Amino acid sequence: MAQALINEGALGRNRRVKRLGRLCLWLNPLVAYFFLWAPILVLVLFSFNQSKSVASFTGFTLKWYSNILNNVVGAESAFSTELMLNAFRNSLFVGAIATAIATVLGTMIALSMARGSFPGKRLLDGLLFLPVVIPEITQAISLAIFFKVAFDWIHLLSGERVFPGFHTIIMAHVTFNISYVAIVVRARLADMDPTLEEAASDLGANPWQTFWRVTFPLILPGVIAGALLAFTLSLDDFVITFFTSGVGTTTLPVFVYGLLKLTVTPEVNAISTIMMLLSTFLIGISLALQGRGASRS
Amino acid sequence: MTAFDVELIDIVKDFDSGGGRVRAVDHVNVQIADGEFFALLGPSGCGKTTTLRLIAGFEQPSSGRVLIRGRAMEGIPAYHRPVNTVFQDYALFPHLTVEQNIMFGLQMEGVDKKEAQKRALESLEQVRLPGVGRRRPHQLSGGQQQRVALARALVKQPAVLLLDEPLGALDLKLRKNMQVELKALQRDVGITFIYVTHDQEEAITMADRIAVMNQGEMLQVGGPKEIYERPGTHFVADFIGETNFVDGTLVERDADGFGRVKLMNDAVIRAQLSHTLAASDGPVLVAIRPERITISPANAEPAERGTTSLPAKLVDSQYIGTDTRYILRIGETIELVARLQNLDDRPKAIFAVGQAVTVRWSDASTTVLDH
Hints:
Chain A is mainly α. In chain A, 78% of the residues lie in helices and 1% in strands. The mean pLDDT of chain A is 87. Chain B folds into 2 domains: 4-234, Rossmann fold, CATH 3.40.50.300; 242-293 and 306-370, no CATH class.
């Protein structure tokens, strides 16, 4: 009878399985995080390495960081602070303008998707995710071809010759940023209680007043989060920028790539580390804003 | 100028739903007087909230007309209508303070900030919630938020205040208190209240008149007493309070508003006919409220005129606090519930289960309804 009540063998086996499961649950994130962070860790580590070679770590130094700010012209290392700062300025310029345009357009799309009803809404909904999922290189090449064709037409019709430059990079960045902004703002709008807009209308606010006094303040965290995300993506983008840039429009990632073509200098490691910190910081704020939005309503 | 604050004239509202059309409001006609406390009562999905939204201007009728203070509301958006709404989940603006919430509607009218502030404070006093003006809505309890929502709507001094199950989210005790307070407030301000609820007790205690709705139709409109005592349909009698329904056959319609109904056990009783009774003979339902049935010993003296008296058997009794419910059987098939109040001078159990008794009720407290 006792055996029928409690099966000791099965109970012990269950305990062992449970212990193994717990161990795996603990190991799993460690392995995953190792894959995620090991390469980056190496990069950060060697940005502080005294030796130029990545063969071994010979000691701690901030030399490469100071090199970024002080021109180094030598046989073994050549780094132009002026060119780098110029590239950085270009990045900020492209990022700011592309972000501003993408934020306005993305927010407008999100609003029409959440509140409007029009034919093809579901199709547009699906298409919105396209820039997020298609390979960047595909988008880059398609944009490059599109600009080429467009410029040829302009030449044909008006006789004006147009060349790629900041305008093409900015337009290209806007195209992929719109999706990210729209997705973030839409999530925020989905969180928002639509009766709040009815309440505003009930209290005498016309649609314009309702938008600016109720809807917009409530989605603002989402809009800012979307803008920060867009700005970060814009700062970090290499592939699309590379394919749509013209003369004198080198952005920071393109500049870094240029350095790599010569030789892997430790300054690259240092710049990359700084860029990573900046991006992480911006994305962190963006995520915090998105999280705050969700928990408040 | 009519005396009515709100008139609904043959209102129909259809919604598209996945290819089909759903009729949410079905030819509703009603006139609501100035200063009236009017309840729209019905189960969820009966169209009561849609009716309210049609008056508020959040929905447009498919056909029919809404008049507010005699003025046709066709093409007039919600923000230009002289009505304000207390929403079910309050819909307070989370990014504004309580005071700013209340000032919102005034500022939309162009009232200057100082004046708006003053009136917001007065309004908070009126709903007995002073001193919370600087707080955010989420820092308040449900009951307090409810008061803020009320203050925000009342401060606009609307012609009509629309309330969409405003007490639905509160617990029972608070709800009872708020019922009394709301009614007193309505008497004070003299504004017409249109009050949506699925709680029949709430409607009966608060409203001057009640409209019972089901499946988009307004089945009956009347005072609480009329709705309770003279239900016009099976649904109304069933939805409001507890009712016994006894199957029978109408054998004769008298001229005095009464008729003779033959029950399943072949007994013929005299019962009052509903105003809306269509049948002149054939199957009907006799509705009798449990508290109108009295129980006497089996050998009780003969009934007086105008009273029905039938032999029955006590099947079960349930003590439910204020009352005791007695389950009675007449003949083989007719089951009735009687409710007797547990007055302190009455012995706990007068009748024993299984005992033969006599049940009685006044003929005037029955209603004969269409089957």
